[in-house]
Amino acid sequence: MPTNVPTSPPVLAVANLEVVYDDVVLVLRGLSLEVPAGAVVALLGANGAGKTTLLRAVTGLLIAHRGRIVKGSVTLDGTDVTGADPARVVRGGVAQVMEGRRVFAEMTVEENLRAGAHSRPRAEYRESLTRVLDLFPALASRRRSTAGYLSGGEQQMLAIGRALMASPRLLLLDEPSLGLAPRLVEQVRDIVERINQQGTSVLLVEQNAVMALSIAHHGYVLEVGKVVRDGPAADLLVDEDIREFYLGSTEGGRRSFAQVKSYRRKKRWSA
Amino acid sequence: MNALLTNVFAGLALGSTYALVALGFVVIFKSTGVINFAQGGLLALGAYLGYTFAGDLALAFGVAVVLACLAAAVAGASVERLVLRRMVGQPPFAVIMITIGLLFVIEPLITAIWGFHTLNVPNPWNIRTVEIGGLVLGVRDLWTIGLTAVVVVGFFLFFRYTAFGLAMRATAFDPEAALAQGISARRVYAVSWAIAAALAALAGITLAAGPGGLSPSISFIALAAFPAMILGGLDSPSGAVLGGLIIGLAEALTRGYQDQLFSWAGSNVSVIVPYVLMIVILLIRPYGLLGTKDVRRI
């Protein structure tokens, strides 16, 4: 029951996706979602809900984890890319910032950015580099430093910058605020907002629901491989259940953990 | 003094050959995590192809060398494409056993085509020598050192400055993150094998152009280059070059002074020196001279 009716075809449409790891473990069970052109979409869910698996299924990285799409489809701008190899997906305009940054620590900042531009013609490189360094002035001053010696925040910026070097139309962000100080989380938030204003659609996977919902247009909640809730971000932000589960606040003040547990046992969306 | 310099020079020439082979080992290990035991087979194949181009087809030696390297590169990439690509993601042990199997397939193939007897590769170097400042140097040794230097410099420039070299380094460091940048791992693997095979072929031809001529046992040289790679550090290209030169020098110097210093050890002690050196260095630095500490070892 997606509430918004997109005027142009969505950048990303995932329909009834089922993913299996090692031929046994069913991680996504008929997941569907859409990222409309120009939107920021937040994807919330507990650990193990299948958020990262969804991103892998979109970008073709499942092969690196012995995973496989067994059902459903992934479409980019109306083109079917279900099970396509990663190089093709990146060329199709999707860039991913993986969880845990995964910068090439042995290389310099600039070499990392060059690697990010791998899928693009060489002629574009200068322009993209200027654009990215403009967005991340901290990286500009450390172009020649080894990426492994950057701080965690700078490495996250580098990971995002590296993904932007591919000039994506859709940026997939996997927990960009993980392990960052509150001020840096705010910085990441502002950057995602700016990237979106420059015309890139964003699919934001986050545990930090307040941050994610505050910039998203639309939000999806995942539980054991399925979408259990979705709606405009503003609605989700005031939703009592979401507040209970993801924001940790309730109307009636503090509650004991025992009560929270019993409440959860009684009420599951997917039940 | 002159005797010492002559020995050092011979050591550098031998070490250059080891360095080329060891570089090939490192390229494949870095990008795919596999030690390619078939390297010696590729070396022999390259040398015999060189013989065919220079001898049977009577091409100019320089042309024959280039063609043999290219042909070996194609052979290496084909081996990767046909056999090893299916093994991506499988346990390293199985993949390593496959490379050992490949070695035993390539060797009989070579003897079936070219026979067992020693062949002479027509070449402009032969046993010619030049005299520089009272020192008698083999022309072939000079060329081996020179060519290796050029190739090694080209190798490092390739990895530092070209887009594909960078992609290969990225894949070596974090294959999944490299995939996420749109870097094709398959192409990286194929090119690694091509580069390793071309390096081996060059080493093979420079060896075959020497006084010993060309026989199937030429592939054993890769076994001596093996300690060079381990000693330098499995994942370090500069370590491979350094290791190659050290092993080459050690072997040549032992051979040179065998009668004076090592007569008690028998006449062939120089052959085991590379391995003794490898054991000693690994005891002190288990990850090799320039290797990364946490490198996976098998």
In short:
Chain B: Belongs to the binding-protein-dependent transport system permease family. LivHM subfamily. The complex is a heterodimer of chains A (271) and B (298). Helices cover 36% and strands 25% of the residues of chain A.
CATH architecture of the domain at 1-36 and 46-88 and 207-271 in chain A: 3-Layer(aba) Sandwich
Annotation, overall tally of beta strands of chain B: 2
| Average pLDDT for all residues of chain B | 88
Task: Please give the CATH class of the domain at 1-36 and 46-88 and 207-271 in chain A.
Answer: Alpha Beta
- Main beta sheet strand tally, sense and closure of chain A: 6 strands, mixed
Biggest interface, and residues per chain? A-B, 30 and 18 residues
GO biological process, one term (chain B): amino acid transport
Protein name (chain B): Branched-chain amino acid ABC transporter permease
Transmembrane segments (chain B): 6-27, 57-79, 91-116, 142-167, 188-208, 214-232, 269-290
InterPro entries (chain B): ABC_transp_permease, BCAA_transport_permease
What distinguishing features does this structure have?
heterodimer; A: 271 residues; alpha/beta; Rossmann fold; 4-stranded antiparallel sheet; 11 helices; 10 strands; B: 298 residues; mainly alpha; two-stranded antiparallel ribbon; 2 strands; 70% helix; globular
Description:
Chain B: GO terms for molecular function: transmembrane transporter activity. Chain B: InterPro entries: ABC_transp_permease, BCAA_transport_permease. Chain B: This is Branched-chain amino acid ABC transporter permease. Chain B: Keywords: Amino-acid transport, Cell membrane, Membrane, Transmembrane, Transmembrane helix, Transport. In chain A, helix 3 runs parallel beside helix 6. About 2% of the residues of chain A have low confidence. Chain A starts with 11 loop residues before the first strand and ends in a 5-residue tail after the last helix. Chain A has a domain of 144 residues: P-loop containing nucleotide triphosphate hydrolases (Rossmann fold, 3-Layer(aba) Sandwich). Chain A contains eleven helices and ten strands. Chain B has a two-stranded antiparallel ribbon with strand order 1-2. Chain B is globular. The N and C termini of chain B lie far apart (43 Å). The chains are: A alpha/beta (271), B mainly alpha (298). At the A-B interface, helix 2 and helix 3 of A face helix 6 and helix 7 of B.
